[in-house]
Each structure stands twice: as C-alpha cells, then as structure tokens.
Amino acid sequence: MKLLMLGSGTSAGVPRVGNDWGQCDPNEPKNRRSRVSIIVENDAGQRILVDTATDLRAQLLANNIEKVDAVFWTHDHADHCHGIDDLRAMRYDRSNPLPGFAGRVTCERLRRRFDYIFEGQFGYPTIVYLKETSQAQMVAGFTFDDVEMPHGPVKSTGFRFEADGKSIVYATDFSEITPAMVKCFKGCDLLVVDCLRERPHPTHAHLEMALDLARRVKAKRTVLTHLDKSMDYATISAKVPKGVLVGYDGLEVAV
After folding, report:
1. Per residue in 183-205, pLDDT tens?
2. Is residue 35 a contact partner of residue 11, using CB atoms and an 8 Å limit?
3. Alpha carbon distance 217, 238 (integer Å)
4. 3-class secondary structure, 46
5. Strands across the sheet containing 244-246
C-alpha cells in the first residue's frame, strides 16, 4: 500500500491570502500547503481519493494522477469538498459514474449542494454514484471501516483502509478522541492525523492530542496533517518523536 498526500494545509492554506506565512519559513517548499486530501493506493494500482479539496485540480496535475477508482468524503466543509467539480475529467473515459462514499449526513449535504454531480443535468452524465459508507465493506480492492469523530459542534468521519495485509488510517478534523476511534484505528500501520497547531483548538486536534492518539492506537508510523501557518516544517520535525513525520504536499509513504 501507499499513501500520497495531495494536500496538508488548513482551510486557508499556507501561505494565507496576502502572502501570510505566519511562523513558517517561506524558503522551505514543504511549508507551502494546499487544502487537505489524500490518495491511498494498493499493490494492484487501484486508488481511493479521500476528500475533494478546494485545490484538487492543481494537486492531481502536480502528482500526475489521471484517474482514481473511488472517492470518499470525511465531511462537507468547503476545504474538503469544494474541488468536487474536478472529478468531471475522471468521468470522461468511464462507462459508469465513479463510486463515492460518505456518512449519512455528509451524503445528504453533498447531494443538496452539488446535485448535478450526483444526478446529471442538461445532457451531462452523472459523475459520482454516492452511497452511504454503511452500504459497502469493500471498494476498489480495499476493505474499509469508518467511525464518526467529534469536530467541534459537528461530526467528521475517520477511515481505516486495508489492502495487501496493511492498513492506513485517515483521521482529520476531530477535536476529541473517543473509544470508538481508538477501537477502529488500533494497530494501524500508518496513521494520518489532524494536527492544526501546537495550542489547543475548539474544533481540531493540536500536536499533543495527535501524538496521544498515535500512542493510544499504537500506530506503527504517523503523519501529521491539516497544519496551519504556525507549524513550520523544520521546527515541528525537530519536536516530534521517532516514527512521526510532519506531512507536506506530495509526500509519499509506502506501508
């Protein structure tokens, strides 16, 4: 299995509009962060895209990704879904819509906001056939499990993908660690985890919470993501323990 981190930044990205780098060194390319999304790939080359980030087109071009085999959404916040239109190019050579999956509430909100994606309009075909995650256990050569995570006043979905005897967990946008999360993520080979900043935040994990989740689930390796402008790559890399990587756009990790 392989992780490809398409984007590693917050909803505002790094730098923010106005060329605001915060504490991040602008001369370090790994500090330039687009909005979060990932691809997981199995040994057969099948790919699952998680979230259609606002910067999706640029991310796919930068990483030479022409197609994916399914799409999952963690939740419907803009930075995680407003690049959805860029899936159109992946529909052109398909005889049927892309399989898409999300939790019940997220499905309802995505359908309401992007009806043309899921229904087709004016002679244009349906781009994604959207199902609730409860309606499937295996997708594109992967088995998967999911869990609801507190994200301030709303919920986000954490995913565990397994293939080829390995597991990758994607847990972004959470503000509390629950027993259900620990159970779902336990013993994963790679944990990709929300880590907005060093100080606590009302709707996101901070550094200590991210490391605590990694310890509690006994993740073999951990990658931090959803990093804001205070999280300088070199500075945070020097602070994290062995086996923990500070994520960046374009990072690839084999498991």
Report:
1. 999 999 999 999 999 999 999 99
2. yes
3. 23
4. coil
5. 138-139, 142-151, 154-163, 166-171, 190-194, 221-225, 244-246
